[in-house]
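job 3f2a | input accepted
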Amino acid sequence: MEFRTITRGAAILALGLAAAGCTSTSGGGGAGGGGGGAGPASKADFQKEFDRVTGVAPTSDMPKTLKAKYTGAAQMDLKEASTQSTVGGVLADLDLNVDWTEGQSGNPWSGSAKNFRGTFKGQDFTADGELTVANAEAKGLPSVVGRNESTINAPVVGPITTATGSAKIELAGDLESGNDTGTILMSLGGNMFGKEGAGIAGTAQGLWFDKSSGFGDVAAGGTFYLDKN
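job 3f2a | predicted structure (229 res):
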């Protein structure tokens, strides 16, 4: 299979993906669990891991500093932009690091998305190369960590303060499949789950363009999960 992606810096952002603000005041919640190792082999395997990460309470004790390694995966359906008909799906492994302190202005994220594999118009494909946070930052696409603190006056016990967390991660880079080489951007945005951000999960979006077959823009949309290692 041959497909080509198109460089459209602002186009991915125009898909409307932003880090969602956490509003939950739930109590603490367990750790995100396992993670690490090879990425999911199928969409069903991915969904099992996504459900595991999101199956605990949202983070309510988000620290003011966070330095950690996160690994996980993204799964996106591929749809023709003109008809919105599904033409395939793609999985990618995520390997990311964060070094963040509340109030900082610099990009706290680094790392990559790689091992892209899936199906397109009935054919299996793999793509060589990787997308990185650094490449996206060079294109003016910042990645961030969010922290939202709130206090409620609970009966009997008095004031209770909770802090939720969120993340927006932009990635860009060149991928090669068959005889085609292109540049794509991918945007991840979601909330933190478990104790002190043990997991992160949310939406993954991108924009692909198939010049070889002339089918026009192909939108990529789905979800992602990350485990703190």
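job 3f2a | Residues 43-54 form the longest helix (12 residues).
job 3f2a | closed
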